[in-house]
Design a protein that fits this description.
Two copies of one chain form a homodimer.
Chain A: H1 8-16, E1 27-29, H2 34-37, E2 40-45, H3 56-68, E3 73-77, H4 81-91, E4 96-102, H5 107-115, E5 119-123, H6 127-141, E6 144-146, H7 152-167, E7 174-178, H8 183-195, E8 200-206, H9 211-218, H10 241-250, E9 253-257, H11 259-273, H12 283-290, H13 292-295, E10 299-304, H14 311-317
Parallel strand pairs in A: 2-10, 3-4, 3-6, 4-5, 7-8, 7-10, 8-9
Antiparallel strand pairs in A: 1-2
């Protein structure tokens, strides 16, 4: 494999500093999905932890290093899940955590960030404006800015999921990974391509937030003017060059899916797997639904990366199968 | 501690034959529940596996021993979860599995038993009739009858949950355990009382299926003529003497909860923890809801023991928070 910014040995050591509550997450074959998808599906479940997403794997690494260095404060921009995770990891290590988010972010995520004692600052714009604001705060206060996907800890933390997939002795042919900033995809992709290169690494992004997928396809950074997707966790517009470079090494494919497929995926995970997932976590199932022939008879691993939803919105999305009778 | 039929060393070895997919399940502090319950809650999640309940811990032990002995077939009566688990564990070891169930059992559970290649026989009565029928089949065919809670493997398999709770270094004051046949309660209770006796062991049963709780309170087997509860997984009428004896040793309390509290518990786990659980798995939360003063400011561990629900019924139960808008 060509080099990436990531290193498998370093990922193995990163794993040691992650609270066990966030590691060794369930990995299981969900047979009930198979008749509906036409392929075998193994689920890697990242929602059964205190922050209900995979993001704490990265923030545990960041916060533990900051604490070792005697740092007192840290700031990040977040669509909501990174902020919760950093708030959790920081609080556990007596760090002051500031999170900058869009005022349009998922309310539950913002409420949880506050409940975890972080300082929450809202900007009147999208996630890219929150990134600018967080950078300004870091500079002004001279504290560490955590940049999701750019900072190697966020990628290597996420990559520990890849270790767990590979260490289980992967019987699957492909792994389907939500693509947002790229930490999850480059992290898991690096480990899979390093240790189980025969497994196909497929990134999945919404058609309404396609910047990194377009960038991957054109092998150059492509930005977009706006995003339009319910998958708030992956709705970025400005791909990071270094992340794209890594993604070009580790991804076998990057596909775009429709909103209707994301919703159908969420419903399917509720009805047949009993899982409440946020839109980003249904991207893998959505990809299968949009290209059944490609996956027919194969065995795919799907990383269910987050479960933070506003229940009102969730109610609308999965409205058909769950309603007041 | 007084002796029970269980043995902690034997439970540790039982753990070795259980497929890793069913072991080391998530155990995490769910802060979002705290403001709604007035106490800290740690969740031990037994639903993220191929059969969506804890029952495979026991059937893995049974089936692995049967396979070692060269057995070819096994039969059990089940309200649905044991049957699924035995079907899964038996299929993995080339055992012919027969499950006897009530025709009124949860349809999803029956469908999943069939999908796992077990022979399913339905009786026109409740779970106690299914137990009689399974015993007759075992006698006629000369094959092993698995009797939930009576057979030590089912208790010691369930008891491995207790090991994982205790090995995590329990910070909790009490563990709340669904009480049905008693395998889960005596199993987990044995380990907790053996290794962490300061932790209170509280069993929770529906008011509509109170036989074992009444038996525990009166220190003698008390049967009932019928059951009336949505918590199908714990709806027995004929407690087993040997199980009661163990329960008298390990349980600090046994409480009964109303159906409305079970439903409120299911809603709360959905709304604030993002978990789809079956009624039996909400008994612990229901117990807190019915006696907030008892648990105020304490830290309880709740075993979320199963997630197999008919979605139509689930839709009705959680109808208020999730509906078509």
């Amino acid at each position: 494999m060509q080099e990436t910014r990531l290193d498998t040995a370093r990922i193995r050591s990163a794993r040691q500093v992650i609270d066990p509550m966030f590691r060794d997450t369930p990995l299981y074959y969900c047979e009930a999905l198979e008749p509906h998808l036409g392929c075998a599906v193994s689920i890697k479940l990242e929602t059964a932890n205190p922050v209900r997403s995979f993001k704490a794997r990265g923030t545990e690494v960041v916060a533990s290093r900051l604490a070792d260095d005697g740092s007192r404060a840290v700031v990040c921009a977040s669509a909501g899940n990174l902020g919760q995770a950093l708030a959790w990891s920081g609080r556990a290590r007596q760090l002051d955590v500031t999170v900058v988010a869009s005022r349009f972010a998922t309310r539950t995520k913002l409420d949880r960030i506050r409940a975890l004692d972080a300082r929450l600052e809202l900007v009147d714009g999208d996630h890219e404006l929150a990134r600018e604001r967080a950078a300004a705060i870091a500079q002004r206060e001279g504290i560490r800015l955590v940049e999701d996907s750019l900072d190697i800890e966020t990628c290597e933390g996420a990559a520990t999921i890849g270790l767990e997939l590979v260490d289980a002795g992967p019987s699957f042919d492909a792994v389907l990974i939500a693509l947002g900033g790229g930490a999850l995809a480059t992290g898991v992709g690096h480990v899979v391509k390093d240790l189980a290169p025969e497994v196909e690494v497929i990134c999945v992004q919404p058609l309404g937030a396609p910047a990194l997928t377009h960038s991957w396809r054109q092998r150059r950074v492509v930005t977009t003017d706006s995003t339009d997707t319910i998958a708030d966790g992956v709705a970025g517009r400005f791909p990071i060059r270094a992340v794209l470079d890594d993604l070009l090494v580790v991804a076998d494919d990057a596909v775009l899916v429709r909103e209707a497929s994301i919703i159908a995926g969420m419903r399917m995970l509720l009805d047949h797997a009993g899982l409440v997932v946020e839109p980003s976590a249904a991207l893998g199932i959505a990809a299968v639904l949009e290209d059944r022939d490609r996956f027919a008879g194969r065995h795919v691993a799907v990383i269910v990366c987050g479960g933070n939803v506003d229940m009102d919105a969730y109610r609308r999305w999965v409205g058909a199968p769950i309603h007041t009778s």
